[in-house]
Amino acid sequence: AERLLEDLALIRWPESTRIMQTEWIGRSEGADIDFDLEGRANVPFLRVFTTRPDTVFGATYMVVAPEHPLIDDVLAAPPANTDISVLATYVAEARRRADVDRMTDTREKTGVFTGVYAVNPATLERIPVWTADYVLMGYGHGAIMAVPAHDQRDFEFAQAFDLPVRDVVYPPALAAVRAFVERATDRVLESPALTVLVSEFLARCVDTDEDPSDAYRDLMDGRDVDQPGRPGPEAEAWREAIEARTGQNLRQVVRAVRRHGLTLATGRADADDGIAVNSARAGEDGVSITGLATADAKQVIIDWLEAQGLGQRRVNYRLRDWLFSRQRYWGEPFPIVFDESGHHYPVSEEHLPVRLPELADYSPIESEVPVPPLSKATEWVNTTAGAAGVDPEVLPPDRPVRRETNTMPGWAGSCWYYLRFCDPHNEQRFVGEDAERYWMVSERTSGKAHAGGVDLYVGGAEHAVLHLLYARFWHKLLFDLGHVSTPEPAGRLFHQGLIQSFAYQRPDKTLVPMDEVEERADGQWFERGTDTPLVQVVAKMSKSLKNVINPDDVIAEFGADTFRLYEMYMGPLDASKPWNTRDIAGPFRFLQRFWRMCVDEQSGAVQTAEAADDAVERQLHRTIQRVGSDIERLAMNTAIAAMIEFVNLVSASGRQLTRDQMSRAVRVLAPFAPHMAEEIWLRLGEEGFVSHADWPAYDDRMLVDDTIEIPVQVNGKLRSRITVAAETGEDDLRSRALEDARIAEQIAGKTVRKVIVVPGRLVNVLVG
Questions:
Q1: 3-class SS at 401?
Q2: Which three-class secondary structure state does DSSP give residue 70?
Q3: Structural domains in the chain?
Q4: How many whole angstroms separate alpha carbon 4 and alpha carbon 669?
Q5: pTM of the model
Q6: Could you read off the pLDDT of 488-511 as tens digits, one per residue?
């Protein structure tokens, strides 16, 4: 898990996917803390993992998962105060629920008291142990210390079962209120001046280095607490901030803080970091973290727990094992067999892979208990160790065995298929060493070796925490075993957007199948049969909505090149966008114009010029540079726009391309419209395939204009434009601007106070 997390820094993946994988791995730093149990010899203590050990003074009860060993121990030997019937019923029902259902925040909190008590190692208080389905055995140790003041689920549980709530962390401002309360007398706390005094104390203490005791002493020196007075602006701002945060007036806040019950007063837990309060235990073996910020409080309390033998630092991960079996026929069989006692044995290496038996019927077996389709192959399933390929030294060949009837999921192949693509015909290894190094160990344009293998992997974001995470896991395993030479499977990942389609919505937001929609006027749709007006919306393509676009139909009408071009021209590759067949005519016309630019419609032969036009040549260099750069950025839509711009310029010029220009232009078109490009390439008489030809080069000098247009302003308002040589200097620009007829007219009879010149950008004439 740690390597999967750390190595995300080595690869160029979308930030959204990196965040999802980080959260799925779920690394958390904290501590294991042991809580002794009263009277339980078999389970003498509960160990909990917490990311907030600084809140241990606020643990007022504990909760264990229904699957925790303590529950079975209690059911076998219940304490006198345990309602064994209620506990057994609750545990049985909870164990049947899926983890996802149990973790839903909106569910009403349920639980049962086990009858067992634990001892809080920080406060030495006796606290009850409950069981509840919102605690899972798979995370931490299947037990939690419940701190209801600072965890919302714990707070809701405490409210439901009337369990105590104790504040032990306050934000700095509320911690300052607590510091005031600790120093104030009852007379001060009940005085008319209380609100003003607390507000002024906050202004002195929060976000300053002043000692609270000094601040309190200076504040109260000579103060008449019977006179309310008025707070200054800063103090008033702190009062408003406290009341906005808590929903209580400041006097109510003080009253709640005195009772350690601000959480109960506000009705919600505060899980944020802050300053520890009410967190001290006296004595030689005691500890105090009161007044410490959360980060420091964590370190102090963990040091104390370790010194007392009550806990230790720990890093925990939420990452789970992967469910790797399916109840279906199509899938790789597991090379595992079971003997009559249920013990499992591997199929020997020389008998791999295990092949699926042929079945005439793959339909599921009707049964109250689900049965995988492979169970129909009874002779294949029930066999002998020898026939199954088990090593005779492991199991006698005549020993009856049963094959595993579940099969592997599709991920069994998708986690490494990219490696097989490197060497698909190798019958000895899944990928040869030379092929793997050739394809997977590449370098970025910086020349620095990267951690990934595949240079660019295009795939959907829906795979972020399943396929894409476990492919990384598999690849690291293969790397550790020495089968691959890169620690990551893909150096760069790109998520493509969905091609959506139009759908039609009734006023009640339900959707109507497309074949039941009638367009009666431009932009007006109605439902056939009911005449209900409909609104056009964008939705996923769906068979039920009958808005799926069949590529074969588009290709039959417009050709495959047009289909490809339109998909790439619709918008950014990572954006979802709706398919609109009306818009496909644009790319179709562009390809027609490109064809006519190269091929004579009457003779079918290429038509070329002897000499190159300078403007066309310059634009071709720019097009080569722009398209090449856009392809690198996966900005296919803007690359196509650059080609359209080039064809427009050639058409407007009335000139033809030279043979060399046409060759370069066709190579630029080829990735987008390969069929047309190959046809023109052939007619040009070029060798081989255009798809095998080198990408054309461009000259940087041709990317810069010889002349540029400079806007000229008068007193900041645009009044004219002048065309000058690109390298024109400041003095010449000033002269040209003042000589311009329109500018001369604007400044006639006025005094030119200043001329601001930004070479290559603008000229601004200031007149008075």
A1: strand
A2: helix
A3: 28-161 (3.90.740.10), 172-269 (no CATH), 336-408 (no CATH), 585-702 (1.10.730.10), 706-767 (3.10.20.590)
A4: 40
A5: 0.72
A6: 999 999 999 988 988 899 999 898
